[in-house]
Amino acid sequence: MCSQNKWRSLTAEKICQKVSGYSVRSAGTEKGARIRVNEGLLGWADLIFVMEKRHSDRLRSKFPESLKGKKVICLQIPDNYEYMEPELVEILEAKLSLHLEMSDNETNFMERVLEPEVMDTWEEAVEYDSMDFTEVNAAFAKSAIELGPMSGKILDAGTGTARIPIAISQMRPTWELTCIDLSANMLTVGAQNVEKAGVRSQIKLELIDAKAMPYPDSYFDMVISNSIIHHLPDPLPFLREVKRVLKPNGAIFLRDLLRPKDEALRDRLVEMYAGECNSHQKQLFSDSLQAAFTLAEVEMMVETAGLERLRIYESSDRHWTAERVWCETV
User: Fold this and answer.
1) Residue 175 bridge partners (DSSP)
2) Can you tell me the distance from the alpha carbon of 84 to that of 98, in angstroms, rounded to the nearest whole number?
3) In terms of Cα–Cα distance, which of 183, 251, 241 is closest to 212?
């Protein structure tokens, strides 16, 4: 238990869910908590952990009857961390292991392994561009158009070699597409693709970090992004930038890979969708799957970033989608 049930206690719940033999719930003590503690939760619990002494004081003041016979343990962890921050995970695991049997640790999903945030060599850019994502890109473009306005300023974050904005511009010529990426070589290949497609008047390519964009607040009518999230060690700065640069009534269409529950499923997906690719391309796809997030992790990040009214769902056996339709007014 913590104050708002958004970072510390939710991280503790996530950690303990991986350990067999325990049923775990998390809550917050404050009025605006994501899930607020109540008598029912306290009555259900056999053991109660709080992050700070003020949390146990509040519980004893508000729920004296519900705490009778209950053991309340203060972990003494200050509010200095965000959800699943590695240092917070390490501290929680160390402190919880003093009270819980943590050795039988069976993860629901294989651990996330980061891949490079930027694919910035010329060879990587060309290799990536040569992979056949035609069907996936066309489906992404069609869905984005269905969610967005008839005309307006559209941001494509992590555009790569610009295959998706090219597909979009051919379907929706009234959109002004600003397409950003942190890889100069990806953008160089993208510029060649844009020129070849004859859509240079609609697409502007810029070397920009999506975690710290130079655009004004409430500037874009829609933000789209395909497969940027799994490249980011911490996607929260990017998601907060999306909220900042997007108009209050703006549309959102984010799609990325889902992290499989185990290595066997990861390998099956690689063979299913990259079986005819070369060994390097297969490895790229495998690494991307393992660097991806679970649906629950995505939901928590979107909520923490303050992005509202999004529909978040598993859209294929290897993708999640977060979407919000454009509207005339909020």
Assistant:
1) 152
2) 20
3) 241
H-run or E-run covering 203: strand 203-207
Cβ–Cβ < 8 Å for 88, 11: yes
pLDDT of residue 300: 83
In angstroms, the CA 288 to CA 113 distance is 9
Intervals of the chain under pLDDT 50: 104-107
The reported pLDDT for the residue numbered 67 is: 93
What is the three-class DSSP state of 255? strand
pLDDT at 260: 92
Strands 47-50 and 71-74: parallel
Hey, which residues does 220 pair with through a beta bridge? 246
DSSP secondary structure, 268-319, as one string? HHHHHHHTTS-HHHHHHHHHHHHHSB-HHHHHHHHHHHT--S-EEEE-SSSE
As a whole number of angstroms, the distance between CA 326 and CA 6 comes to 28
Residue in the block written with tokens 């009534």: 249
3-state SS assignment for residue 206: strand
Are the CB atoms for 29 and 49 separated by under 8 Å?
no
Tokens of 165: 């904005």
Query: What is the spatial distance between Cα 160 and Cα 181, in angstroms, rounded to a whole number?
Result: 6
Q: Which helix (H) or strand (E) holds 188?
A: helix 184-197
Rounded Cα–Cα distance for residues 141 and 166 (Å)? 9
Other beta carbons less than 10 A from residue 328's beta carbon:
6
**Residue 149, pLDDT score:** 96
CA 197, 199, 205 angle in degrees (round to 5)? Answer: 105
Q: Say which amino acid occupies 277.
A: C
Q: Give me the pLDDT at residue 109, please.
A: 62
Asked if 155 and 223 count as a contact pair (C-beta separation under 8 A), the reply is yes
Tokens of 200: 């240079």
Instruction: Look up the pTM and report it.
Output: 0.68
